[in-house]
Amino acid sequence: MERQYVTFKISNQEFGVDIQNVQEITNFVECTQIPNTPKFIAGIVNIRGTITPVIDLKERFNYNNDDNDEKNKRIIIANMEEKQIGFMIDDASSVLTLNENQIDEPPEIIFQNNDNFVIGVGKIEEKLIQILDLEKILTVEEKEEVFKIMD
Questions:
Q1: pLDDT of residue 21
Q2: Distances (CA, A) of 101 to 36, 71, 120
Q3: Superfamily of the domain at 2-150
């Protein structure tokens, strides 16, 4: 079975998410920071009248904040438990179609360290793309923290 994935970069690493989980990809807008929130919460933005919390995936993944090219930054808008959430990325790449035999299980070391949000590794020619489950990027406690912002 084939699936389509939106691919993007964070600190020059390629990631993908199922296109069915993505509402849209917007240009980066400066976030309004919220006091006393975890570092991975970049803040909130107004997306067509909806206040949307934004998760900084670079911070969430503990990558160096190497300040890649600001002009390519984007925000992926997705639904998480029926609430709109933004995920800050360095650059949106493309939409790829992968079939099951192009996706391997993630190596055990990835599985142990990432709370199972890396659900596979896609292979396109020589390129490896980590396939993410957006629902699992945040723990239950972290989701509660993010959802509190929206109430």
A1: 93
A2: 44, 35, 11
A3: CheA-289, Domain 4 (2.40.50.180)
